[in-house]
Amino acid sequence: RYTSGQDMVSILQLVQNLMHGEEEEETSQAYRLQNVGEQGHMALLGHSLAAYISVLDRERLRKLTTRILSDTTLWLCRLFRYENGSAYYHEDDREGLLKICRLVIHTRYEDYTVEGFNVLYTKQPVIYISSAARTGLGQVLCNQLGLPLSCMCRVPCNTMFGSQHQMDVALLDRLIKDDVESGKLPLLLVANAGTPGAGHTDKLGRLKELCEQYNMWLHVEGVNLATLALGYVSSSVLASTKCDSMTLTLGSWLGLPAVPAVTLYRHEDPSLSLAAGLTSSQPVEKLRALPLWLSLQYLGHDGIVERIKHASQLSQRLLENLKNLDFIKTSVEDELSSPVVVFKFFREYSNRDQTSHAAQASAIQHSIISNERHIYDTFNQWLGEQLAQLVPASGVDVVELEDEGTCVRFSPLMTSAVLGTEIQDVDQLVDCLKMKIPVLTSTLQLREEFEQEVRRTVGLLYIEDLTWPGLGVVRYNYHNDGKNDDKQEKELEKINTELLKKLNELESDLTFSLGPEFGGQKNCVYIGMVTEDLDVSELVETIAATGREIEENSRLLENMTEVVRKGIQEAQLQLQKANEERLLEEGVLRQIPVVGSVLNWFSPFQASPKGRTFNLTAGSLESTESTYVSKAQGTCTTPPPTPTSSLAKQRLPGQKIFKRSLRSSDAFSETSSVSHCDDLEKMDQRPPTLSPGQEQGPLETERTEEQKEVAQATKTDTEDIPSDKSPHDCTKVEEQESQR
């Protein structure tokens, strides 16, 4: 098909179709593309210009690439306060650290270029990274460098003093001493100026002193490095300017698409930098900086600072609003200037430790705390997903932290430039958070009550699922009649599926579902988030009553086939017996064809037709003689109606199901019911009267004793006419009695 090639229009059309994909994805793609802006087009233009520039003659290309590389490096070093630095431009943000590791290996092992791995074998290098670093960073470095995983040492964070996301400097010192004593060579330390999770900064000043003591290389990375371009910089971040190298991800900070990351470093030997791959003699490799060169010129110094400052203001705006919200716990390093805001929903229990003896209930208390953490992780996962869905321009996401658990993260330095986040988006995020907090607190309060109600209700089984963000999980267990496991499982699935369908048909504000697509319990009903006015007892009672109704209907359908089969067999036996009796009554002569006709003509035989009717409700055979006598089909007794919840019957007009009424409405309904009962008692005590227009039918000649007593009682009661009756009504009553 493509042997002859295609024209430009067809190729561009193919690219357009591949970019947009399905129709339902067009909206999200258009939303991403509309925020590119002119500065984004400048970055994209740089890739096209790099292809055109690469075809220039060698001398002109060398001069142009040298100018672009030197200008971009000088601007970045001045902008981020990194004096006398060199720059390496790379697509993968981990590639710069990888090249730095090669540079340090070449520097510390003089014979590495000649002997290679043998040098490393005699004295094993050690690279130290924080336990709060990016996931899988150490494994990637070892794989790319060809080192065993034993060369990677993870340094724990603080546990007693300081931030729990900062590297423990004292413990790092002991680890380095142990490695030196065991004959290893401490090579490099990777520190964070803004951890990937919580955005905290390590104590870079003390870490730099430690690296100088052991002749180690200090590399720093993190989102907080962007604040170096601002006028005010915190002392912890400002210490990063003294490090040996740092990696900057300008694409996400400034909203520039397809621009490379930059690693700034200081080293005096250019030959080792060339051997490590930090510099290249090929002019085309230097053109990687062209998109960034164009974008920096377009934005200018003021434009770059304004974007970073705007992101910092967004985080401060959110942090100030979160301080005024109950049940919200923040985890920030510096409340005055924190580019990353991490928060979570959490409710303190003041009397948790005062409810039981510590010695006897320590294991139970530990289990309760562990379950509570799982529940809070689940609720915060739901909260983060809801906020990201309701306010997509905010760029919030969910992050898993080692100590805090699941939290919601707002990092505008990484998202605001691309998504176009504004102050009103932060205010909308706070408003949505205020709406979700009452739902979270109500659901958390009612979970225990729901569990207790389900456990005390016959036929329902409470399923403990700590990963479900909602009221809880319940399963209806039907009565097992000795069925095998496969049949029992199918019947259980059928009943609970029908129960879920019935519950969703109710007019309520609750959400009933089968649970998560992966990892959920089978044959269960999952109930979502609820509000504080939920009537848990009515909800559980309705679930149980609906399940019993479905089970009864299911059993009726199961038994119907067996009942009908037995009924047909019984009917056949009775009809066969009736035929034998008819032969005995008619005689043998009447069965002969010709003789029987003549005999029937002279002496007809009167025989009443006998049949059988099958009552499906009672499951029994009945005679049809009454049907032929009365000339009408007999009516069967109707089954009793399905019992409904007594609480549902007392619902006020306009009140939805499973909702508790307010106190005023409850008082009004109780007063109304009491007055209504009093009226009923008065009406019962009132003597019955005959209506003015009522006519009496003809009296029968013979009355039973009961009828006479009723008539006598009626006559006696009519003598006592209430005061509210008119004289005309009294006269009519007397005339009717005289006629009687």
TrEMBL record:
<dbReference type="InterPro" id="IPR050477">
    <property type="entry name" value="GrpII_AminoAcid_Decarb"/>
</dbReference>
<dbReference type="InterPro" id="IPR055102">
    <property type="entry name" value="PDXDC1-like_3rd"/>
</dbReference>
<dbReference type="GO" id="GO:0016831">
    <property type="term" value="F:carboxy-lyase activity"/>
</dbReference>
<feature type="domain" description="PDXDC1-like third">
    <location>
        <begin position="450"/>
        <end position="555"/>
    </location>
</feature>
<dbReference type="InterPro" id="IPR015424">
    <property type="entry name" value="PyrdxlP-dep_Trfase"/>
</dbReference>
<dbReference type="Pfam" id="PF22937">
    <property type="entry name" value="PDXDC1-like_cen2"/>
</dbReference>
<keyword id="KW-0210">Decarboxylase</keyword>
<dbReference type="Pfam" id="PF00282">
    <property type="entry name" value="Pyridoxal_deC"/>
</dbReference>
<dbReference type="Pfam" id="PF22930">
    <property type="entry name" value="PDXDC1-like_cen"/>
</dbReference>
<feature type="compositionally biased region" description="Basic and acidic residues">
    <location>
        <begin position="716"/>
        <end position="740"/>
    </location>
</feature>
<dbReference type="GO" id="GO:0030170">
    <property type="term" value="F:pyridoxal phosphate binding"/>
</dbReference>
<feature type="compositionally biased region" description="Basic and acidic residues">
    <location>
        <begin position="676"/>
        <end position="685"/>
    </location>
</feature>
<feature type="coiled-coil region">
    <location>
        <begin position="561"/>
        <end position="588"/>
    </location>
</feature>
<dbReference type="InterPro" id="IPR002129">
    <property type="entry name" value="PyrdxlP-dep_de-COase"/>
</dbReference>
<keyword id="KW-0456">Lyase</keyword>
<keyword id="KW-0175">Coiled coil</keyword>
<feature type="compositionally biased region" description="Basic and acidic residues">
    <location>
        <begin position="700"/>
        <end position="709"/>
    </location>
</feature>
<keyword id="KW-0663">Pyridoxal phosphate</keyword>
<feature type="domain" description="PDXDC1/PDXD2 second">
    <location>
        <begin position="338"/>
        <end position="444"/>
    </location>
</feature>
<dbReference type="InterPro" id="IPR055103">
    <property type="entry name" value="PDXDC1-like_2nd"/>
</dbReference>
<feature type="region of interest" description="Disordered">
    <location>
        <begin position="662"/>
        <end position="740"/>
    </location>
</feature>
<comment type="similarity">
    <text>Belongs to the group II decarboxylase family.</text>
</comment>
<dbReference type="GO" id="GO:0019752">
    <property type="term" value="P:carboxylic acid metabolic process"/>
</dbReference>
<dbReference type="InterPro" id="IPR015421">
    <property type="entry name" value="PyrdxlP-dep_Trfase_major"/>
</dbReference>
<protein>
    <recommendedName>
        <fullName>Pyridoxal-dependent decarboxylase domain-containing protein 1</fullName>
    </recommendedName>
</protein>
<feature type="compositionally biased region" description="Polar residues">
    <location>
        <begin position="664"/>
        <end position="675"/>
    </location>
</feature>
